């Protein structure tokens, strides 16, 4: 049952990523693929929040399957760091090394910061 829920959550995460990217793309005034940055920052925040809420708690209070379904399934399907790195390489090639490095740096720094904020909020709420 857990495997089925993981697959469904992964599909839901991927569908949410597609919709989020479409919305951001419609409103993106920049020449960089901003949707992927937004998606990875939001996904990192959610995973940090989940970790703060559940992973640090006693195994008896939350099910491991729920953590796996939300964390690995949904957040894994939603985030797309491989795409971010391909986009950074494409920007490096098309716009120059500076643009590619800045894009990768913003993606990484934003995602790590969002995960830390989510973790902090999750710990406060648990």
TrEMBL record:
What are the GO cellular component annotations?
Answer: plasma membrane
What is this protein's name? Answer: Fluoride-specific ion channel FluC
How might one describe the regulation of this protein's activity?
Na(+) is not transported, but it plays an essential structural role and its presence is essential for fluoride channel function.
- Species name: Intrasporangium chromatireducens Q5-1
Q: Per its UniProt record, what InterPro entries does this chain match? A: FluC
Keywords on this record? Cell membrane, Ion channel, Ion transport, Membrane, Metal-binding, Sodium, Transmembrane, Transmembrane helix, Transport
Q: What is its main location?
A: membrane
State the family it belongs to: Belongs to the fluoride channel Fluc/FEX (TC 1.A.43) family.
Localization, UniProt: Cell membrane
> Which portions of this protein are annotated as coiled-coil regions?
none
Give a short account of what the protein does.
Fluoride-specific ion channel. Important for reducing fluoride concentration in the cell, thus reducing its toxicity.
Q: Which GO terms describe its molecular function?
A: fluoride channel activity; metal ion binding
**GO BP field:** cellular detoxification of fluoride
**One Pfam family hit:** CRCB
How would you describe this protein's topology in the membrane? Multi-pass membrane protein
Membrane-spanning residues: 30-56, 68-86, 106-125
Where along this sequence does the record place binding of Na(+)? Answer: 76, 79
Report which reactions are catalysed by this protein: fluoride(in) = fluoride(out)
């Amino acid at each position: 049952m857990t495997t089925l829920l993981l697959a469904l959550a992964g599909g839901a995460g991927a569908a949410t990523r597609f919709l989020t990217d479409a919305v951001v793309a419609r409103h993106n005034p920049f020449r960089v693929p901003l949707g992927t940055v937004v998606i990875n920052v939001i996904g990192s925040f959610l995973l940090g929040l989940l970790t703060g809420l559940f992973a640090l708690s006693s195994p008896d209070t939350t099910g491991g399957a729920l953590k796996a379904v939300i964390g690995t399934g949904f957040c894994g399907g939603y985030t797309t760091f491989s795409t971010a790195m391909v986009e950074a390489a494409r920007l490096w090639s098309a716009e120059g090394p500076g643009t590619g490095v800045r894009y990768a740096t913003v993606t990484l720094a934003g995602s790590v910061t969002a995960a830390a904020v989510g973790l902090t909020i999750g710990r406060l709420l648990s």
